[in-house]
Prior knowledge:
Elements: H1 2-27, E1 29-34, E2 39-44, E3 49-54, H2 64-94
Antiparallel strand pairs: 1-2, 2-3
Helix pairs in contact: 1-2
Amino acid sequence: MKNLGKMMKQAQEMQGKMAKLQEELQNSEHTGTSGGGLVHVILNGKFEMRRLNIDPSIFSGDDAEVVADLIVAAFNDAKRKVDEFNKNEMAKLTGGLDLPEGIKLPF
């Protein structure tokens, strides 16, 4: 019975840590760039786009397709950074414990 109480306490602590991590992810910002810094996409830790910055010089031509490609590339760069940040934060929370495939915390 003593172990059950200890496990419950640990589960509650983990739940608190998970809530804190959720808030940290929501508030974190990760910038992806493309086109040599002409396009910046800023995502939070939950992959929500916060801002999009496009250097005005990019509009000197008529090639909208290039602009669209640069936005996609910047988004993907930011997404990669969010993935890495989330993975590192989760490793801190779980103490480096590898979770079984398919279990993706905190989502």
